[in-house]
Amino acid sequence: MSRRHPLRATTSIALLCWLLLRCAAGATDPATHGPFPAGRQTVFIPGEEQHALATDVFFPGTATGGVAAAAGPCPALVLGHGFLQSKACHEQQGILLATRGFIVLIPAFNKAADHRRNGRELSRCLDWLSGQQTNPAALFFQRVRLDRLGAAGHSAGGLSALLAAADDPRIRALSLMDPVDKDKLGLDALSRLSLPVAMTWSEPSSGNNHGSAQRLFAATTGSGRGVKIVGANHTDAQNPSGWLCRLVCGAAEPRRQHLYDRYLVGWFEYHLHDDAAYASWVFDLPGGQVAADLAAGRITYAAPKSKPSGTGRPNLGR
Question: Which DSSP helix (H) or strand (E) runs through 53?
Fold first, then answer.
């Protein structure tokens, strides 16, 4: 007589409950964990000038079992950390995205101030993942949606994600956290993009070049949305926050971190998971979650360049 493993039974019940809730509510708060365990590994990916990129990879599943069968094939994204910050500053976001069915690669940049190089190295991470997809011996063999790749980043890491997307046609959606431009590199990159771009930013300060994200968002030419988190500082986009960012920009606050996570992840749910149920978490629609945050004074909102229909699959054209 076979016995069902209690942990597997518990996991199955949790998954069923989450799916029933999702069907009833349409979508769950993107800042809350999904039904999957978060697996994690650190790999060394070939970078520029033969320098290895120490990269944390988060995924739905476990290191021994691989990607959870119910999760894959998975959309994937790369996430760039800020200037003089570290990949550890986005660990909780990597875990959050993994529990919701994404594969996330967060490299440690080797050249903090070389933003073009960092953009190319984000693409190197996608090269590595593409190789994993076709390698029968790899953990991610046939578990990746290579047609659903995105990029994210905080501060200068947001600039690196912009530069990567401008040169890498595999990247189909961007969700940037308080991005900071340098020498108009980001403005130039945006002039060459027509893909969905989300920007979430904090109050203007010296830490974010006095509202750099707002100037960048004004230059977007594709569909997009801009959200300012009222009262937030530059550190709030990190979780856990880095000591240098806390020293220069102030301490992070959990409520504001939650909002950053909500608007980071919701964009990818809509654009990479093709889930139209997340439209009300992404756009200012009557009775939606964005509208609720606006009414409560938690955010301000800049309308997208093109309105969604709210039904069907999102437009992923570049």
Answer: strand 52-62
In a domain, residue 115? The reply is yes
**Segment 197-236, tens digit of pLDDT:** 999 999 999 999 999 999 999 888 778 899 999 999 999 9
pLDDT tens, position by position, 268-286: 999 999 999 999 999 999 9
Which residue is associated with the tokens 């229909």? Answer: 309
CA max distance for the chain: 69
Q: Is residue 2 part of a domain?
A: no
The predicted model scores a pTM of: 0.88
Q: What is the CATH number of the domain that holds 202?
A: 3.40.50.1820
Residue 170's SS3 state is: coil
Q: How far is the CA of 264 from the CAs of 112, 153, 173, 179, in angstroms?
A: 23, 10, 11, 12
For strand 224-229 and strand 299-302, is the pairing parallel, antiparallel, or unpaired?
antiparallel
Sorted by sequence, the CB contacts under 8 Å of residue 134 that are 6+ apart come out as: 141
Q: What does the CA dihedral 310, 104, 78, 222 come to, rounded to 10 degrees?
A: 0
Beta partners for residue 106, in sequence order? 56
Nearest to 173 by CA among 309, 93, 57, 274: 274
Distance CA(46)–CA(43), nearest Å, equals 10
Q: Determine the distance from the C-alpha atom of residue 36 to the mean position of all C-alpha atoms in its chain, rounded to a whole number.
A: 17
Helix axis angle, 91-99 relative to 254-271, nearest 10°? 40
Strands 144-154 and 171-177: parallel
